[in-house]
Amino acid sequence: MALEPALEQFFNTYQRLNRDNLDLLGGIYSDDIRFSDPAHSLKGLPALRDYFAELYANVEQIRFDFSAPRISNDQVFVQWVMRLRHPRLNRGGEIEVPGISCLHFAENGLVDDHRDYFDLGLLLYEQLPLLGPLVRAVKRRFSA
């Protein structure tokens, strides 16, 4: 199976995705999708839809910039930068979080396994008014 068309559809769907069109997920993910990221691990398209509904509920703006996809058989590794605005994080300013996804495509061209890797602290903890400075100070100490 040539993955390029399925991968292009995956990227395009993520560019269009918002809280009002989460049904688009069914066009890129299999019914028995296994999804994991640093905060969650879940199985099944309904569970994934619910997770995205929760994630997108208060997001004012979100976009993904994908780059450097690497295809190996039925698996794709792709780098991305997520840019989002949330009223309760970073005083409503834009947050940039780099990450990488490992995607496995089934024979039908749908993703049946999706694993995301990113710094959860950068996305969440560092953006909170009281906790953010403490987390950044700890990170600086470990990198010195």
Automatic annotation (TrEMBL):
Residues in SnoaL-like domain copies: 14-112
InterPro entries: NTF2-like_dom_sf, SnoaL-like
Xref: Pfam families: SnoaL_2 (PF12680)
SUPFAM superfamilies hit by this protein: NTF2-like
Protein name in UniProt: Nuclear transport factor 2 family protein
Organism: Pelovirga terrestris
